Amino acid sequence: MALGKSTGAPFPDHLQTPFSFQNNAHDLRALFTKEFTALDGQVFLCRGKPELIENIAKLAAEKNWTNIICKTPALVNDMQFHLLPSVNNSTDEEAEAGITDCECLVARTGTVVLSAAQASGRLLPVYSPVHLIIASVDDLVFDIGDALKRVENKYSGQLPSAIFFASGPSRTADIEKRLVLGVHGPKEVYLFLMDNDLKQPKYPDTL
Amino acid sequence: MKRKQTEFLLASGRKVFDLDHRKKLNFALKQADAAYKKGKQQFSDLETTKKIAKNIKWQAIENLHTYLEAFETNFNRNGGRVIWAEDTQQALDAILNVCRKNEAKSIVKSKSIVTEEIHLNQFLTKHHIEILETDLGEYIQQLDGEAPYHIVAPSLHKSKEDVAQLFHEKLNVPPDLSPEELTLVARNILRKKYAAAEIGITGINFILADIGGIAITENEGNAWLSASAPKIHIAITGIEKILPSVHDLNLFWPLLATHGSGQRTTVYNSIYTGPKKQDETDGPEEMYVILLDNRRSHLLADPAARESLYCIRCGACLNVCPVYKNIGGHTYGTTYSGPIGAVISPYLNDAAEYQHLSFASSLCGACTEVCPVHINLHNLLLNNRRNAVEQNLISASEQIGWKIWKKINQHRLLMNWPGGATKTFLVGKLFRQHWGIRRILPEFTHKTFNQFTKNKPDSK
Amino acid sequence: MKVQLFVPCFIDQIYPQTALNTIKVLEKAGCEVSYNPNQTCCGQPAYNAGYWDECRPVARKFLDDFNAPEYIVAPGGSCVGFVRNHYDKLFPDKNMSQNTTQKRMYELTEFLTEILHIDNMGASFPGTATYHDACGALRECGIKAPPRALLTNVQGLELIETDDCEVCCGFGGTFAVKYEFISSGMAEQKVQHAQKKGVEYIISTDHSCLLHLDGYIKKHLIPIKTAHIADVLASGW
User: How would DSSP label each residue in C72-98?
Assistant: First the structure.
């Protein structure tokens, strides 16, 4: 695999140039909500735990879910404590929905970052027909690069065996370019964003 | 003319004037174009971004050996295993070994053009191992017994009625299902397969040297399931998919999404660094990465062609290519179609058999213009053409023709000779047959412009 | 301003009137036009066909024929793009940066608008037309605005854009004879798009494209005419 002759840099003037995306300075909460919604996800802002539990309970009742899987111990305890018996930590393949937390949220692309190191593991978020994510406003970062740094820092060199960047429900356009949601992964995705101070915009951390 | 060239020429004639095919392809590619134009707005300066991306791929490919070794070291440390495959046979043998060791009877597979390149499905089927495509487009193609039509959109050429009819015939469902219903049929069939399969095979979009991981881009979730549900995960790719660092994904994921499907980001972008860790909930017990050369080192060894290895397989050059738009994917008769396919196929296969593809281009440059990593595709086609001439793969009559052309164009008086009518006659004699029935040939004027002017050329 | 005229082969052999009109336009724009009668071809046909060795002596002759220090103007983007972007590769040993030919060479419309800052030639050309972006002009030279600016100011001419104005006409030199089906199919779709817009003319900077489209149009008796931009700009005065 020896290189015969090396070639020079294609664009030597741009070896140090940073690239940039549109919308660099933005309220992350508003940006994330806009992008996540544009991808057919739904955001529920929740001021504190009681509102979160109430929102989930009402949505479950409305959708008539009787079997919601959650493998995150703290979350299961919270839910069951509040008499949400449909939430359990079984491995039932027929469950109607799955609840997980997340590693972080990418505002620019409306992305939920998940990993195999979470108690929910690899399969629950993708196998569930409906995915409910519980996140906090502190999970927001601007772009994919920021999210990668955050995950790297958290696991300090021992990355989880899988890291997922999920942006909205599963989709396909393989049949005549027609958009269909929920091909192999979830058809519906709901994000419950915990934020105690809704009036304060959330700007990116300046490094 | 070589057999493949003749086949290509005849097949192109059938496709170009198949108006139903033209309509379907134009419809699909028009939508792809509209999505791309919207998606690219996410970059504040796309042109500069592409230059930066090319620099990164240049760095990666110039130091390919170093980065691949770094990947192997890091991936081993994560508990994975790298298998180096010099050619198709080595890759197939490696996969069969893993299957036998684990007594695998069924495999789920996500989209991977490299598995098309090595004809994996046919090979495993011959060894009585079921291998099922899980990407919806690939699943449709597998049901139909056809190769993918497009590297990103495998069933691009099929209308929804075509797919409904196919499902009706093969899966015994009603003949008039909608795309939503058809998708649900596939979902329900494939769900059961993920859990039952012993092995999941996936492609790879990027090899990440610094963390010893791989990145996979998809919209459906089938690759995620294939890499996570079975107890063994095999990922296979060509060696050129290398990126120096996981942090390059901040650029390359959006770049691939926009140029592949017009999205800002695809629905699922995943990084896999190895098998399930001890304290993790679930995941495969073993993970293999197969790194395939299969004559890519020929491209690497030639500085003039090397940049074709920067390709991230987004398919954008196919979408904008007027030749692809007219003849579609299958006509090429290669695993990789479109401009990038025409560039690399003579290197990845016998050059004599595939050089004609480099000439099947008007050199319009739309491919070069759209390429997210700024590969000079139409210049690489020119380079291939020169190779074909130097390697004597062109007909003798054409070679003589160009020698005469050279002679005439070195002497102005020869260009004015022998008068318009004779020229028209000669050109007609030479080219009428190849000009076809759909165009008339132009006629030369009695005098050239040169003969109208007062100054006379030197009579040398 | 003194300029040297380069006449592309197609114009020299098939459409001499366009060269005469180019001179007419340049002179009206205040140029003194010279024509070296020894000139032949830039060499592109052989280069594109893979015959670099056959191309080189012809390209070398081009450099010799145009070694005067004045601007070189050509009614065609294809030759200009070739000289600008490919002579470096053709002569890797020759220090092309010392040679100013590549920098002195301009396509007619870009020369008028960018060097002479003229976007109105005072022409009139009644009718409806669409402009076809010739690949050589558009992608090798980056010419998008100049022809449109000039055509917008032509009296009586209504310019109608098609969605596929940037799509190749299918000519491509030897491609047109090696792969007649694909080439004809491309011409067919190009002409059909123009037909749908109901235009009377297809105008372009390059006669190679127009010749190709015209071949399709005439064969099928389609009521559209092709017109070189130099001929349009030289009309009505």
Answer: EEES-HHHHHHHHHHHHHH-SSS-GGG
Which CATH number fits the domain C124-233, given the four candidates 3.30.70.260, 2.60.40.10, 3.30.230.10, 3.40.50.1860?
A: 3.40.50.1860
Q: Could you tell me which chains touch chain A, where touching means 3 or more CB pairs under 8 A?
A: B
Give the pLDDT confidence score for residue A206 in this predicted structure.
42
Interface check C170 vs B, CB under 8 A: yes
Is A83 inside any structural domain? yes
Contact with chain B for residue A145, Cβ under 8 A: yes
Contacts of B76 in chain A (CB under 8 A): none
Q: Which residues sit opposite B235 in a β-bridge?
A: B202, B289
Contact B281 A3 (CB under 8 A): no
Looking at beta carbons, which residues of chain B come within 8 Å of C62? none
Q: Which of C60, C138, C179 to mutate to test the interface with B (most CBs of B within 10 A)?
A: C179
- Asked whether residue A11 is domain-assigned, the answer is no
Q: Which of A164, A182, A36 is nearest to A97 (CA)?
A: A182
Contacts with A7 from chain B: Cβ below 8 Å: 58, 62, 303, 306-307
Distance from CA of A173 to the nearest CA of B (A): 8
Q: Which residues of A touch B287 (CB under 8 A)?
A: 161
Tens-level pLDDT at each residue, chain B (460 residues): 688 999 999 999 999 999 999 999 999 999 999 999 999 999 999 999 999 999 999 999 999 999 999 999 999 999 999 999 999 999 999 999 999 999 999 999 999 999 999 999 999 999 999 999 999 999 999 999 999 999 899 999 999 999 999 999 999 999 999 999 999 999 999 999 998 999 999 999 999 999 999 999 999 999 999 999 999 999 999 999 999 999 999 999 999 999 999 999 999 999 999 999 999 999 999 999 999 999 999 999 999 999 999 999 999 999 999 999 999 999 999 999 999 999 999 999 999 999 999 999 999 999 999 999 999 999 999 999 999 999 999 999 999 999 999 999 999 999 998 899 999 999 999 999 999 999 999 999 999 999 988 888 886 5
Convert the pLDDT of each residue in A154-175 to its tens digit: 998 799 999 999 999 999 999 9
Is residue A129 in some structural domain? yes
Nearest to A17 among B48, B59, B187 (CB): B48
CATH number at residue A37: 3.40.50.10420
Please determine, for the modelled complex, whether the ipTM score is greater than 0.90: yes
**Out of B28, B58, B183, closest to residue A172 by CB:** B183
In total, chain A counts a number of residues equal to: 207
Q: Are A203 and A25 in contact (CB under 8 A)?
A: yes
CB contact under 8 A, A7 and B374: no
Residue B322 is nearest to which of C15, C35, C170, comparing CB atoms? Answer: C170
- C181 at interface of B, judged by CB pairs closer than 8 A: yes
Q: Which of B213, B206, B227, B219 is nearest to B108 (CA)?
A: B227
Complete domains list, chain B, with CATH:
1-42+307-394 (1.10.1060), 49-294 (3.40.50.10420), 403-452 (no CATH)
Beta carbons of A180 and B183 less than 8 Å apart = yes
| Number of independent structural domains in chain A | 1
Whether a cis peptide bond, with omega within 30° of 0, leads into B418 is yes
What is the layout of strands, in order, in the sheet containing A130-136? Answer: A42-46, A188-194, A130-136, A97-100, A68-70, A87-88
- State how far residue C169 is from chain B, nearest Cα, in angstroms: 9
Give the burial class of A62: count Cβ atoms within 10 A of its Cβ; 0-12 exposed, 13-18 middle, 19 or more buried.
Answer: exposed
Six token digits for residue A80: 């069951």
Question: Burial letters for A109-122: b for 16+ Cβ neighbours within 10 Å, e otherwise?
Answer: bbbbbbbbbbbbbb
Domain that holds residue A74: 26-194
In a domain, A72, yes or no: yes
